[in-house]
Write a structure and sequence with these properties.
The chain folds into 2 domains: 3-174, Nuclear Transport Factor 2, Chain: A; 177-282, no CATH class. It contains 11 helices and 7 strands. It has helices at 3-9, 17-38, 50-57, 83-91, 119-127, 176-189, 198-209, 216-225, 237-249, 253-260, 275-282; strands spanning 45-48, 66-70, 98-101, 110-118, 141-149, 158-163, 169-174. The longest helix has 22 residues, at 17-38. The chain is an alpha+beta fold.
Length: 288
């Protein structure tokens, strides 16, 4: 195996085939960031979301996707101009991935792409001749989605972070307060039909556990964009807490736990999850 990949893999404890797949995905996520950085992507965009929290702030759960936001709104943003940088970065490490843009079926402010590669091939690259290979269908694909919000809300603030592997690179990233605003927006507004995305609420607990405060300007703009509130709504920390209390009262926490369970190692962290728990921790919520 490539020495750099070996270094990146060394921090992972992989007890089963799913752990191995997730480790590969997380490593490839960082390789994508390095490629984007080389291509100048972070001159016009910033990193945010669960994977940003995991890589740069220590969130202890697996996050599937890479989320970015433009710094300034640009309806004509061309995501495809960065694909070669990503593919070159992966191929330089002996990996075989291709990037394709996702065709939009509805008009939205999100541009999406997928990085895809054969699972069995890459398990063998990372783990050599491993018995787990026999458990994988020859046609199974590793997919990593990355999305860019091309019409971002105003008021976001940023910082720069350094990654060291696969090579030193710099990213622009939304700061904790702006990341927290995005996560609260997701907690309030994101639904999967009749299901709830428990990962949003896991991250919400994480933000509170590290004492993060909320960028209220960005949160208000995002809530207006989603038509959750109107322009004249007086968003205060107290009114925000009331919104969250109402949201918690409508959540099926059993479904939320089931959603996040495959993404965390320490399942005991979910034992306290219910409406009362989330109401109580929300009393600690503070604005920037």
């Amino acid at each position: 195996m490539n020495k750099i990949l070996e270094q990146m893999l060394a921090k992972y404890q992989t007890d089963n085939i799913e752990d191995k797949k997730n480790a590969i995905k997380e490593i490839v996520q960082e390789i994508i960031l390095c490629g984007l950085s080389r291509g100048g992507f972070f001159k016009e965009a910033a990193f945010y979301g669960g994977t940003a929290l995991r890589i740069f702030y220590g969130l202890d759960r697996f996050s599937e996707d890479l989320d970015f936001t433009l710094i300034y709104q640009n309806k004509n943003f061309d995501l495809t101009k960065y694909f070669n940088y990503i593919e070159n970065e992966t191929s330089s490490l002996g990996l075989s991935f291709k990037v394709t843009e996702k065709e939009k079926t509805i008009d939205s402010n999100i541009k999406s792409a997928f990085l895809k590669g054969n699972t069995k091939e890459h398990i063998m690259t990372f783990y050599n001749q491993n018995s787990d290979v026999e458990l994988i269908n020859k046609d199974e694909i590793i997919r990593i989605k990355f999305e860019v919000d091309i019409l971002p809300a105003s008021g976001a603030t940023y910082e720069e972070k350094i990654g060291l592997l696969p090579a030193p690179y710099k990213v622009k990233i939304c700061d904790l307060e702006t990341l927290f605003a995005g996560k609260i927006h997701a907690c309030l507004c994101r639904n999967w039909k009749t299901r709830v995305k428990g990962r949003d609420f896991y991250d919400y607990v994480f933000f509170l556990s590290i004492g993060a405060k909320v960028n209220m300007e960005t949160l208000k703009e995002k809530l207006i964009q989603s038509k959750f509130i109107d322009q004249n709504y007086n968003l205060t920390i107290d009114s925000l807490k009331e919104m969250l209390y109402d949201r918690f009262s409508k959540i099926n926490f059993r479904q939320a736990i089931d959603d996040v369970m495959p993404f965390v190692k320490d399942k005991d962290k979910l034992d306290l999850w219910n409406e009362e728990f989330f109401r109580e921790i929300t009393k600690k919520l503070e604005q920037k």
